[in-house]
Write a structure and sequence with these properties.
Aspartate Aminotransferase, domain 2; globular; 2 domains; binds (2S)-2-hydroxybutanedioic acid; alpha/beta; Aspartate Aminotransferase, domain 1
Length: 398
């Protein structure tokens, strides 16, 4: 049977990771995969994570299964982190949370519960969206359509075009929204725009499916959860997929959660039973370690305060780099305006180069970004900023 399979192209982000690792050139710069790096180009284990792991090592007495919904303490701590401790949907018993293997697991579980509740659902994703959204959502049987989002002319959001398309969607349509730090563009919605979308979603009876993979990397832990908190208090139903990969630096531990907000507590219980059945049929029970670490951090005031400082430090380094790279680019490519990079949020910026230029940057200068010219700003360092800007100028000038 397998002889009938044709080889397929490797996923763009995974392919780029492998190409970067294989490149022996000492000047190489990794702006590809969305992994935070410090100014030495490293992705160290956060110190709050190290401390929680040490405590776990001495306190953990078993490796027996945790259960289908994961670690209940982790789920509650994530609810407080995502919604804020006093959120009305939590106190009304309208939220159910299931631990998932990373943000991807949460997205897949969210897509599966939508298809289970409403087979034939269409999910509308922004143009562009994260390259793994389509396989995750379509793999669960949802149909995919797109709405306008990124405005290449300004580096911001084409808000009017976005609204015009969403306004025409039929009741029950699912709209995938990035809570903050839009991947791949870095272009985020303002609070005022979120409020407009909320009014539209209410008017058109749409279902928001919100992906939050970078809480804390945009404007802060609370500010980045603004849309989730607002929508969950104003709408009967919301689906939220959350990742701990970036803000806890737990990439390889596959730690995330799906929160489903329902209209009533009874609906929430029925939803939870379906989520458990779906998860059982895919991964059965989620991996424990990352969730146990997050639980350890969020339930210890000292560790939690230390972790928040680390998140602040990562965010401010990215913010500083955004300003610094704009300066360097202005100096080396004065004919082009790169100021949009400083206005964007999170790890990514859509650089606005052609695929041919991106590939030239890779082959001649060993600078790696995805073919659509998404760059991970956190991959830059003080010591390679100038090299980066000079290389870009050379490629753009050719
Ligand atoms: C990215 O967008 O680079 C990250 O979210 C990693 C991944 O799995 O694609």
């Amino acid at each position: 049977m397998f002889e009938r399979l044709e080889p397929i192209a490797v996923d763009t982000i995974l392919g780029l990771m492998a190409a970067y690792r294989a490149d022996p050139d000492p000047r190489k710069v990794d702006l590809g995969v969305g992994v935070y790096r410090n100014d030495r180009g490293e992705t160290p284990v956060l110190s709050a994570v190290q401390r929680a792991e040490s405590a776990l090592l001495t306190s953990q007495t078993t490796k027996a299964y945790v259960g289908a919904t994961g670690n209940p303490g982790f789920n509650q701590a994530m609810e407080r982190l995502v919604f804020g401790a006093d959120h009305a949907a939590l106190s009304a018993g309208r939220v159910r949370t299931v631990q998932a293997p990373g943000g991807c697991g949460a997205l897949r579980l969210g897509a599966e519960i939508i298809r289970t509740a409403s087979p034939g659902s269409v999910v509308h994703v922004p143009t562009p969206t994260w390259s793994n959204h389509p396989p995750l959502l379509c793999g669960a049987g949802l149909k995919l359509e797109s709405y306008p989002y990124f405005d290449a002319a300004t580096g911001g959001v084409q808000f009017n075009a976005m609204i015009a398309v969403l306004e025409r969607l039929p009741a029950g349509a699912v709209v995938l929204l990035h809570a903050s730090c839009h991947n791949p563009t870095g272009a985020d919605l303002s609070e005022e725009q979120w409020r407009e979308i909320l009014a539209l979603v209410k008017r058109r009876h749409l279902l928001p499916f919100i992906d939050m993979a970078y809480q804390g990397f945009g404007d802060g832990l609370d500010a980045d959860a603004f849309a989730i908190r607002l929508f969950s208090s104003e709408l009967p139903e919301v689906v939220c997929a959350v990742s701990c990969s970036k803000n806890f630096g737990l990439y390889r531990e596959r730690t995330g959660a799906l929160h489903v907000i329902t209209e009533t507590p009874a609906g929430a219980e029925a939803t939870l039973s379906n989520l458990v059945r779906i998860a059982r049929g895919i991964w059965s029970m989620p991996p424990d370690h990352g969730a146990a670490v997050v639980y350890g951090i969020l339930n210890d005031a000292t560790l939690c305060a230390g972790w928040m400082e680390e998140v602040d430090a990562m965010r401010s380094r990215i913010g500083g780099l955004r300003g610094a790279v704009v300066q360097q680019l202005q100096q080396h490519c004065p004919q082009r305006d790169f100021s949009f990079i400083a206005r964007q949020r999170g790890m990514f910026s859509y650089f606005g180069m052609s695929t041919a230029q991106v590939r030239e940057l890779r082959s001649r200068h060993h600078i790696y970004m995805t073919d659509d010219s998404r760059m991970n700003v956190a991959g830059l360092r003080q010591e390679n900023l100038e090299y980066f800007a000079r290389s870009v100028a050379e490629v753009l000038g050719r």
